[in-house]
Specification:
four-stranded antiparallel sheet, about 50% helix, elongated, alpha+beta, about 10% strand
Length: about 375
């Protein structure tokens, strides 16, 4: 290679005399302006890598996370070039691999125009290292897809097989049973004080994860609360369906944005979801069941409740009140009050609003107590 022609080629490249560059596997070409009005057609050819060489090169990249990170930052790490060379893969073209071609009459090999093209493509590789991969036979998309596949396969091969596991509810019940039948087994630790917990994340979630720091911290606080309940012996939350758990979260007043997203993700009508949220606040998961599903209880329980309510109503109002019974529900006709007997043998009071029955107070074992809890609330609206 003639030093004078290389120097002139570097000057041509710096002066912007190399036109639009076309890159393809095995060659690069561009018009290069010389001393004549019409640019010369210059090209440089080089061998593409074989499939075996590509396997070796991509294994070298995938084997070191820093290599991939540098490439994604549009940098060509020198260590990668050296790793490839030691593995027998010439990533950077050697002088003997370059085959210049130009339409100019200069007999130089390369001529200053082809040399200018080499300098221009070197500057392009500085900005985008994947240009070098494209020249060697594979473009950015293909290389990245292959690297992702190799790293995924590598992680899968290294990861130990996950145990089958059991549902948390069964594990918790098994521990309770074991503790009851095994003398000397240490007790569960005392419930820690709330101040012993923190819901602060050490670092924010990645910007492109779709997660927000306040949302994650709220979920962490919720997990802390549920763990405290488990330590105190309340395992109710272990048996919730996804639908019930969404209502439970909404009942904790997470804010309008969360409430709206919970409605969307459960596919429940907004009014129905709000009614179930009220049911949870007054009765937990049993309150939801009572709000959603009527059932047929023991007729004697309904008869006893009806008798007790009739006697209580005679003392509460001078106006006769008609009690209408249907399955587990007793409705005070014309008063907008309904009492529902739950599967836990407690009575859940509801008030009617715009044709819908809304849970209105905590459940009570005595139907008269349940009625008394909502009687004053219903008085301002005798026409409901």
């Amino acid at each position: 290679m003639d030093a004078g022609r290389l120097s002139r080629g570097r000057t041509y490249a710096r002066q912007g005399m190399v036109g639009p560059v076309t890159i393809a596997p095995g060659h690069v070409k561009a018009p290069v302006q010389g001393s004549r009005p019409r640019p010369y057609r210059s090209a440089v050819h080089l061998p593409v890598l074989t499939d075996a060489q590509w396997d070796t090169l991509l294994d070298a990249v995938a084997g070191r996370a820093g290599h991939l990170a540098a490439l994604l930052d549009d940098e060509m790490p020198a260590e990668l070039v050296e790793d490839a060379r030691q593995a027998g893969v010439p990533l950077l073209p050697q002088p003997t691999e370059l085959d210049p071609e130009c339409s100019c009459p200069d007999w130089g090999y390369p001529c200053k125009h082809a040399a200018a093209l080499c300098y221009a493509i070197a500057a392009t590789i500085d900005d985008d290292p994947f240009v070098l991969f494209a020249l060697r036979g594979r473009g950015r998309t293909e290389v990245l897809a292959d690297l992702r596949a190799r790293r995924t396969a590598g992680r899968a091969a290294q990861a130990p097989s996950a145990p089958a596991g059991v549902h948390a509810a069964y594990a918790y019940a098994a521990w309770a049973s074991l503790a009851a039948h095994t003398p000397g087994l240490p007790d569960l630790p005392d419930t820690p004080k709330p101040s012993a917990h923190t819901a602060a994340l050490p670092v924010p979630p990645p910007a492109d994860s779709g997660l927000s720091l306040p949302d994650l911290e709220r979920l962490m606080a919720d997990v802390k609360s549920r763990a405290t309940q488990l330590l105190s012996g309340d395992a109710t939350s272990l048996y919730l369906t996804q639908h019930q758990d969404a209502v439970r979260i909404a009942a904790s007043s997470p804010g309008p944005e969360w409430f709206h997203r919970l409605i969307q993700n459960t596919g429940t009508a907004p009014t129905a979801f709000a009614r179930l949220t009220r049911a949870w606040r007054h009765g937990g998961p049993t309150g939801i069941a009572v709000a959603e599903q009527p059932h047929s209880p023991d007729p004697s329980a309904m008869t006893a409740a009806r008798t007790a309510l009739t006697a209580a109503l005679a003392d509460m109002t001078d106006t006769p009140v008609r009690l209408r019974a249907w399955r587990n529900r007793l409705t005070l006709t014309g008063h907008g009050i309904q009492l529902r007997l739950g599967p836990d043998a407690r009575w859940y009071p509801c008030l009617q609003d715009d044709g819908e029955w809304w849970p209105a107070a905590p459940a009570a074992t005595d139907p008269v107590a349940a009625l008394t809890a909502v009687w004053q609330l219903a008085l301002p609206h005798p026409g409901r």
